[in-house]
Amino acid sequence: MNASENRRSFIKKASALVGAFSIHSIFNELHATTWQTLDDSYSDWSPVDLASNEDYWSVIQQGYSASSSPIIILNNGGVSPSPIVVQQAVERYNQMTNQGPSYYMWQILDQGRERVREGLAKLGGCSPEEVAINRNATEALVTVIYGLDLKKGDEVIGSTQDYPNMMQAWQQRALREGIVYKQLTFDFPMENDDEIVEKYRKAITPKTKILHLTHVVNWNGQIMPVKKISRMAHQHGIEVIIDGAHSFGLLDFNIPDLEGDYFGTSLHKYLSAPIGSGMLWIRKEKISKVWPLVCAGDPQSDNIRKFENLGTRSFPIEQGIGEALNFHNAIGTKRKEERVRYLKDYWAKKAIEIPGVQIHTSFHPSYSCALAGVSVDGLTPAELSSKLMSQYKIHTTSISLGNIQCVRVSPHVYTKISDLDRLVAALGKIAG
Ligand SMILES: Cc1ncc(COP(=O)(O)O)c(C=O)c1O
Question: Can you give the residue ranges of the Aminotransferase class V domain (predicted)?
Answer without folding.
Answer: 83-423
